[in-house]
UniProtKB/TrEMBL annotation, chains A, B:
Stored CDD domains: PseudoU_synth_EcTruA (cd02570)
Protein name: tRNA pseudouridine synthase A
Family stated for the protein in its record: Belongs to the tRNA pseudouridine synthase TruA family.
Alphabetized UniProt keyword annotations: Isomerase, tRNA processing
Single GO MF annotation: RNA binding
Residues where substrate binds: Y112
Stretch forming the signal peptide: none
Lineage: Bacteria, Pseudomonadati, Pseudomonadota, Alphaproteobacteria, Acetobacterales
Protein species of origin: Acidocella aminolytica 101 = DSM 11237
Quaternary structure annotation from Swiss-Prot or TrEMBL: Homodimer.
Its job: Formation of pseudouridine at positions 38, 39 and 40 in the anticodon stem and loop of transfer RNAs.
E.C. code: 5.4.99.12
Limits of the Pseudouridine synthase I TruA alpha/beta domain: 9-105, 145-247
Alphabetized Pfam families for the sequence: PseudoU_synth_1
Length: 253, 253
């Protein structure tokens, strides 16, 4: 057996999230079951991911570690994708993991995208893949407000009550908001995020974009260190895990 | 009552197609039922569309005519979208129809897009919205071959056996194939298309893109005037109705 790094893409809609649950299907479970089938039904070690996404959250390039046979990357990818059917999870690339590497603990930076469909009409083709906001958003005001979140802060105001992290301190490295036609898109990056941090950030930035809050209120929300000071938790369906960085970078094919 | 022109968007996945069926839900039926609810449950006239899409085919800007009350366009759009819920159909814009106008018979040009996901890994986020083709396609060869389809031809080789059109003669005004990352996209335009014509055209262009057929074979297929001479009918799920042109143009808001 070899420890493999798998870069995977998934549609989070039908899943309870990354982590195995008693009730309902989790992405972790589907990955482990596909790996087990490659091994002829043998028990497999736990699949560990760079990020544990919530129910309904999507991923464009999640990285997962799991033990698999010593095949070529091509054969591992094809075999995994065969056994992952019909679930909307695909192995994009893969490779043997470097010595001592952990998908979770070796991650230097994680990136997320949040997609708002900003138009009066409801979504049709992108149902469950966007947050529908009817009122016209000022994405430039949202971008300026987002810059107030950058740096090392106590993010308690943007932290879910269920968050298990020991410290509310996080360093936000990047946060940009742009418009692409009917969509308003936030991209953000940090070494790690608190539970619901991205969804809570965009929930407050939306209040700025709608003109309900001045941009400077973001600084006051941070200073309050209190969840009720911030805006709503945006729905999971607009959130995409877009990537994770390691040093040295993973070599996948 | 006023005859309205509605520009609508829909995800074709859950529907039996545009046209009302005995078994299963059609887009036409959902539109008529929403219109009826706006009219307090009264019987409504038949909804007529610019194109009758097949089961699973999507639309970004289909135009539909139906009688509705003499409200403002804003109120018609909001009321229709309210009553269309939870179906993935949305009225984007609307306006009172010009005198003597028909959504179907006044159409001067119809446009379609066909989207191929061209990568070894299966689709996840775009399941039911693309045709998955694993082998690397030469989109430039496909584009050159597509130019051989332009003009006035007998399109019998690209016509479904169930096609009800009186003549197999059609004039193809535009057909372009391009790559956008992992996607190969065809855009095409004509006054009207035969049944399955777009899906049969891309089915043959894919054979060129995979290197199985030389580009010039497209000319031979046209000359054969025989459906078996052409490639497979590409799946409905990659097809999008993208627009219809009228002269004078519709004024919608």
């Amino acid at each position: 057996m070899t420890l493999w790094a798998l870069e995977i893409e998934y549609n989070g809609t039908p899943f309870m999230g990354w982590q195995r649950q008693k009730h309902g299907l989790a992405i972790q479970q589907v990955i482990e079951e596909a790996a087990s089938r490659i091994r002829g039904g043998a028990e497999v070690t736990e699949a560990v991911s760079a990020g544990r996404t919530d129910a309904g959250v999507h991923a464009l390039a999640m990285v997962v570690q799991i033990e698999l046979p010593d095949f070529t990357p091509y054969r591992i990818r094809e075999a995994m994708n065969f056994h992952l059917k019909p679930h909307p999870i695909a192995v994009l690339r893969c490779g043997p993991a470097p010595e001592g590497w952990s998908a979770r603990f070796s991650a230097k930076a994680r990136s997320y995208r949040y997609v708002i469909l900003n138009r009066p009409q409801p979504p049709t083709l992108e149902v469950k893949r966007v947050w529908h906001v009817k009122a016209q958003l000022d994405e430039q005001a949202m971008h300026r407000a987002a810059q107030l979140l950058l740096g090392h802060h106590d993010f308690s105001s943007f932290r879910a009550s269920a968050c298990q992290a020991k410290s509310p301190m996080r360093t936000l490295d990047f946060c940009a908001v742009r418009r692409e036609g009917e969509k308003v898109i936030m991209e953000t990056k940090a070494r790690s995020f608190l539970h619901h941090q991205v969804r809570n950030m965009i929930g407050s930035l939306k209040m700025v974009g709608e003109g309900h809050w001045p941009e400077a209120r973001i600084t006051k929300i941070l200073a309050a260190r209190s969840r009720p000071a911030a805006g709503q938790t945006a729905p999971a369906e607009g959130l995409y895990f877009t990537g994770v960085e390691y040093d040295p970078p993973l070599e996948l094919s």
